[in-house]
Specification:
single chain, Rossmann fold
């Protein structure tokens, strides 16, 4: 398979990190998670960054990380759910790789993130409403930059990976 960057976008709990790791391993490509890269470069975890710098401070750090990771060749990148809220990120992702929108319903997101204490936007009692609002706000951005959209509720991770491989191969004329 030709070396192309594959970027996974979608809401929290859609399976971006899980599928990204598996896909990268199968393709023999390096895997990056933009949230982990923000933490590694700042020396602080995301909840701390949100507490001290707010969401805007985090988004500025994220823009830098996305620009750097998009300049690489032949990587699989799982992005944070809000990466698409910044035009700079959408331009980087849309220009430098194959973008896959991993879809999941609010009900599935809620179940998959239920015990996760590391998501600042979900540290509220109305988590279901927060997820619903975020999906309404962000879904047009996800679909706007996606080369491929896949429902992670109806497909197993292996099936998602096979669909991504097929789509990337057909796009590259392999």
């Amino acid at each position: 398979m030709p070396l192309t960057n594959i970027y996974l976008v979608g809401p929290m709990g859609a399976g971006k990190s899980t599928i990204g790791r598996m896909l990268a391993k199968e393709l023999g490509l390096p895997f990056y998670d933009s949230d982990h890269e923000v933490e590694a470069r700042s020396g602080a975890d995301i909840p701390w960054i949100f507490d001290v710098e707010g969401e805007e401070g985090f988004r500025q750090r994220e823009i830098q990380v996305i620009e750097e990771l998009c300049s690489m060749k032949g990587v699989v990148l799982a992005t944070g759910g809000g990466v698409v809220t910044r035009l700079e990120n959408r331009q980087q992702l849309g220009t430098h790789g194959f973008v896959v929108f991993l879809q999941a319903s609010v009900k599935t997101q809620l179940a998959r993130t239920e015990k996760d204490k590391r998501r600042p936007l979900l540290q509220r009692p109305d988590r279901k409403q927060v997820l619903a609002n975020l999906l309404i706000e962000r879904e047009p951005f996800y679909t706007g930059i996606a080369d491929l959209s896949l429902d992670t509720e109806r497909l197993s991770p292996k099936a998602v990976i096979q669909e991504i491989k097929k789509a990337v191969e057909s796009r590259r004329g392999v």
